[in-house]
Write a structure and sequence with these properties.
There is one protein chain. This protein folds into three domains: about 1-95, Roll (SH3 type barrels), CATH 2.30.30.100; about 105-170, no CATH class; about 170-220 and about 255-295 and about 310-339. With about 350 residues, it is an alpha+beta fold. A hairpin with a 2-residue loop joins strand 6 (about 160-165) and strand 7 (about 165-170). It starts with a helix and ends in a 46-residue tail after the last helix. About 55% of the residues lie in helices and about 10% in strands. It has helices at about 1-35, 90-100, 115-130, 140-155, 170-220, 235-240, 240-295, and strands spanning about 40-45, 50-55, 60-65, 70-80, 85-90, 160-165, 165-170. The strands form two sheets. It has a five-stranded antiparallel β-sheet with strand order 4-3-2-1-5, with no helix packed on it. It has a two-stranded antiparallel sheet with strand order 6-7.
Length: about 350
C-alpha cells in the first residue's frame, strides 16, 4: 500500500535528521573542549598569543589565536626564532585559572571595613580554593589574601574601624574624616579664588578694549574734513566733476564701513563684558557657599583679642567691595564703563 510506504520513508528521513543533529552537536562539543585548552605563545617582542597550536615544525609554528575574549579567531604563522616561550595549558589548568579569577570578587576596601558575613564568605572561598588545588601556582597569593582577610576580621571583632588603610577607633575615624573634608573645601576655595583672579584680569582687559573702541567711534563720528582750500578753475575743469564725485563717494563708503566695523566690535565687547560679569557673580556665589561651609577657627584665649569677621565676597557687576571686606586673594577690578 502506498500510504504506509510514504510513512516509513518519512520516519526514515526523521531518523537521518536526528543522526545528523547528534553528529553536529558532538563535533561542536568536541570543538568547545579543544578550544578550552588554551596554548600561550610569548614572542620576543613581548606580545602574547593565546589560542590553539595547529601545527609545528623546526622553523615555524601555526597558532589559531583567540582575540577579543574569543569572539575572533585569527591564524598566525610565527617563526621559531621569534618565540620566547610556549605554555600548553590543560583543561584542569584552565579550570584552576578560572576559579582563581573568580576570587577577584572578594576584595577588601582600603577606606571601609566589611561586615562579618562578608569576611566569612571571603575566607571560606579562599580556603575552598586551597583545598581543591593543593599544588597550585596561585597558592602563595591566595594564602596572603587569606591572612589579610583573617586579620581584618579580627580587627572588626575588636571594635576597630578602617580608614585610609589604617585601623583606628570610631571616634578617631570621625575626626580624620572631618579633617579630610575640611582640607578638600579649603583646596576648592583656593582654586575658585584663583579662577576669580583670572576672570577679573580678563574682564579688565576687555573693559579697556571697549573704552578704546568707544573713543575711536567718537572720532569717526566727528565733523567731516574740509575740502583743502581753493581749487584752480582750470584744474577743476581738467580733473572733471564726475571724478571728484566718485572720489568723495568712495571716501564716504570707506568711512561708513569703518564705522560699522567699530560698532560691531563695541557690541561684541559689551557681550563679553556681560558674560564676564555673570561669571564673576557665579564665582562669588561659589566662594561664599564654600566659606559658609568652612568653620571659623576659635579665637585665641587672652584679653584684648579682636575677632575678625568672615570676609565677604566681591559684588557682581564687574566692581568689587571695599578692600576691608574682600577675600584675601581677590584683586580689585576697574568699574565697567557705561554701556
Amino acid at each position: 500500500m502506498p500510504v504506509p510506504s510514504e510513512s516509513v520513508r518519512a520516519k526514515g528521513l526523521g531518523a537521518r535528521q536526528r543522526l545528523r543533529l547528534w553528529i553536529f552537536v558532538s563535533v561542536f562539543l568536541a570543538w568547545c573542549t579543544m578550544s578550552a585548552i588554551a596554548d600561550t605563545v610569548t614572542l620576543n617582542s613581548g606580545e602574547v598569543l593565546e589560542g590553539r597550536i595547529l601545527s609545528e615544525t623546526d622553523t615555524q609554528l601555526v597558532i589559531e589565536a583567540s582575540l577579543y575574549h574569543g569572539t575572533i579567531l585569527s591564524t598566525r604563522k610565527v617563526a621559531r626564532s621569534d618565540i620566547r616561550s610556549i605554555v600548553r595549558e590543560s583543561l584542569e589548568q584552565q579550570r584552576e585559572k578560572a576559579d582563581f579569577e573568580a576570587l577577584a570578587k572578594h576584595a577588601l576596601n582600603p577606606n571601609q571595613e566589611l561586615t562579618p558575613d562578608q569576611y566569612a564568605a571571603g575566607i571560606a572561598a579562599f580556603q575552598k580554593f586551597l583545598a581543591k588545588y593543593t599544588n597550585s601556582s596561585f597558592t602563595a597569593d591566595v594564602n596572603k589574601r587569606l591572612a589579610d582577610w583573617r586579620a581584618e576580621a579580627a580587627s572588626v571583632e575588636g571594635g576597630k574601624v578602617k580608614y585610609a588603610g589604617t585601623w583606628m577607633t570610631p571616634d578617631k575615624k570621625k575626626t580624620q574624616v572631618a579633617q579630610a573634608a575640611l582640607l578638600s573645601l579649603q583646596r576648592r576655595l583656593v582654586d575658585l579664588r584663583a579662577q576669580r583672579v583670572t576672570q577679573s584680569i580678563k574682564l579688565t582687559a576687555i573693559q579697556k578694549q571697549l573704552a578704546d573702541a568707544q573713543a575711536k567711534l567718537a572720532s569717526l563720528q566727528g565733523p567731516a574734513p574740509s575740502s583743502g582750500g581753493r581749487r584752480d578753475l582750470a584744474g577743476r575743469l581738467t580733473a572733471g566733476a564726475v571724478n571728484a564725485s566718485q572720489r568723495e563717494g568712495a571716501e564716504e563708503s570707506a568711512s561708513n564701513l569703518e564705522l560699522s566695523q567699530v560698532q560691531d566690535e563695541i557690541n561684541t565687547l559689551r557681550q563679553q563684558i556681560s558674560q564676564g560679569q555673570k561669571a564673576l557673580a557665579t564665582l562669588d556665589a561659589k566662594v561664599a557657599e564654600l566659606q559658609s561651609q568652612i568653620p571659623m577657627p576659635p579665637p585665641p584665649s587672652g584679653a584684648g583679642v579682636t575677632v575678625i569677621p568672615r570676609p565677604i565676597p566681591a559684588r557682581s557687576g564687574g566692581t568689587n567691595a571695599p578692600a576691608a571686606t574682600m577675600p584675601p586673594s581677590a584683586p580689585d577690578s576697574e568699574p565697567v564703563p557705561p554701556l
